[in-house]
Amino acid sequence: MGLLQNKTALITGATSGIGYACTVTFAEEGANLIITGRRRQKLLQLEKLLIENYKVKVLSFELDVRRREKVEEVVASLPAKWKEIDILVNNAGLARGFSKVHESNVDDWEEMIDTNVKGLLYVTRQVLPLMVKREKGHIINIGSIAGGEVYLNGNVYCATKSAVNALTKAIRIDILDKKIKVSSIDPGLVETEFSMVRFHGDVERAKKVYENIQPLTADDIADAVLYCVTRPAHVNINEIVLTPLAQASTTYIVRE
Question: What percent of the chain has pLDDT over 70?
Fold first, then answer.
């Protein structure tokens, strides 16, 4: 029997990277899954894979977490049994652009703030009351070491991840009497689509981020998430900060 047998998890941004890895890891452990993402075709492919390979129950929803009304609609539409959500992984997030504040594209700011902060809040606002009602559940927020250390050209992205850090702590305090766990996973360099998105599809620029270093993988992060959600009932992992062996901070990296 899997570690998450009979559990229900909702994972945002499930179609790639860390979200995808968490989804597959949870399915391997027997969890039933509510998966969301913006790319409908990839979402349907993932749903098919999960059902066929892991024999778990799956509900999938095309969802942009920036759209508050759509988030509300999706959660409200869940059948009663599916509203018994044991784990929420707030994974949907991105970096967009890499320039100084006075040279930045304001549209990039809007997208990061709307996704990384407001999107996380919109989803949490709908799911958390369901957990509070049952006095049971676990929220995992995918943050970043950028939430604790700013770096050149990271400005607004770092600010959004600082907000995730603060919100994680605040939510835990707000529901401390409700027996609900709240954790953040804060990675350093992880090789996913992250840099491709940040650099607006510039393949060569994205590759340079991971040159001459062995970065973390999405599976490494999913493993940390699984560790958090499988601790004994009396144990809450507040925060896990993890980096590649060759990275000590947002700016100090040894490349071979």
Answer: 100
Question: Active-site residue among 20, 54, 122, 157?
Answer: 157
Options 3.20.20.140, 3.90.1200.10, 3.40.50.720, 3.20.20.70; CATH for 8-242 is: 3.40.50.720
For the residues 195-205, what does the mean pLDDT come to? 95
Give residue-wise pLDDT tens across range 129-166. Answer: 999 999 999 999 999 999 999 999 999 999 999 999 99
Q: Where are the domains of the chain?
A: 8-242
- Within 10 Å of residue 46's Cβ, how many Cβ atoms? 24
Report how far residue 245's alpha carbon sits from residue 111's, in angstroms, rounded to the nearest whole number: 31
From 132, 56, 62, 57, select the one nearest 92 (Cα to Cα). Answer: 62
Q: Is 241 helix (H, G, I), strand (E, B) or coil?
A: strand
Supply the DSSP symbol for 216.
Answer: B
54 in active site: no
